[in-house]
Design a protein that fits this description.
about 45% helix, 4 helices, alpha+beta, 60s Ribosomal Protein L30, Chain: A
Length: about 80
């Protein structure tokens, strides 16, 4: 289950800007994108991931992704980052 993977990750970048930065710096191991997030927010990072060879995993809900990241609000994108 992807949410468990997010909860167990030692380091996360939560949010579109932070996750994009992690991918650009070559630190992201995997990017998790909420299916119900605005495509205007997620399209850029999904394209960046495909160019950079970073795996993209989709989850159903921003609310659940935010919860898995330990925040009170929904998260459109989160990146599991190399230590």
């Amino acid at each position: 289950m992807t949410y468990d993977k997010v909860k167990q990750a030692s380091k996360l970048s939560v949010g579109t800007k932070q996750a994009t930065k992690s991918v650009e710096l070559g630190q992201a191991l995997e990017v998790i994108v909420a299916k119900d997030a605005d495509p205007r927010l997620t399209t850029k990072i999904v394209n960046l991931c495909s160019k950079s060879g970073v795996e993209v995993t989709y989850v159903d809900s921003m609310k659940l992704l935010g919860k898995a990241c330990g925040i009170e609000v929904g998260a459109a994108v989160a990146a599991i980052v190399d230590k």
